[in-house]
Write a structure and sequence with these properties.
By secondary structure, the protein is an alpha+beta fold. The chain has eight helices and 15 strands. It is elongated, with a radius of gyration of 32 Å.
Amino acid sequence: MAGIRDLYEILGVGRDASAEDIKKAYRRLAREYHPDVNPDSVAEDRFKEVSAAYEILSDPQKRQQYDLYGQGGPMDFPFGDISDLFEAFFGQGSFGRRRTATRTRTQRGEDVFAEVRLTFREAVFGTRREVPVARLEPCDRCSGSGAEPGTSPRRCRTCGGSGQVQDVRRSIFGTVMTAHPCSTCEGSGEEITSPCERCQGRGRLAAEATVPVDVPAGVSDGLDLRVPDAGHAGRSGGTRGDLYLSISVEDDPVFERRGTDVFSLLEVPMTQASLGAELEVETLDGPERIDLDPGTASGTTLRLRGKGVPNLGRRSRGDLFLTIQVVAPEPTSKEERRLLEQLAELRGEPAGKRATGKGTLRKPR
């Protein structure tokens, strides 16, 4: 497949990548190469290449076809660029978007992707964040029209106002007729003859914005949170895209989360484990008192209902599980050692470096 890189290579993933890995790779590259954000001259071509690779590999059926017949498969496609490859799969122009009628200049804005890092407790109880976002805003000179003030778009001279140009080409599937959106008017049927000096006819300019976001209680690491109408501004008055936040949650030094339940170790001195005690422990909700029964052994698990993580979108909460770990004392004085020896003697338990006895094994629980 001369001239075309492997689609997996374009996205920077292996051929065994999961659907989630492919989506994450696309989002990262789309943020980097979007031509309206990245002024580099090759960014637009790179963005189209990444978008086309994603549209094929994100479709399980098309991905299977590509794995069988595409790059590295038993029969390479003899095409010169990725648009040829895409049309072989979809029989459409402009990377799979079929145009049966002229489209309006008014278009919805693209989605924006960002990452939010939360502490463990912020993820549990929710929080409000001001998220910095690089996005496209309507040009204030032309009000988003793309035309220099005092002028207006006119019928496209390339496509005659149809918004399409047709092309016929041969592929391994036979003769394929495709209708491509006109590159002059981008399929709208109208061209801007006097582009706005500030935005060069795009109608939008890159800007930094701060979006207030209410993060709900119970979000987890890796969750994608959608914020409607917070993405790029639409073209020619179109609606905004959405903002997608990838949630990253920091580990907690005390608690471990498993779903909506929370787990932790509770260290208890041997004397309290043997005699019992009433202990105060610090939970996610603050101090809680628990009763420790006499003779509590290491590995015993205590359950505090409703002290875990809120169930996202519901009123229920998980539980807090405390696993007891009995801490054996190390004598720090002769008196302590004498008392421990007396206890061992009373219980008939050989103790000390020179003591010999028989250990008892049991199957782990």
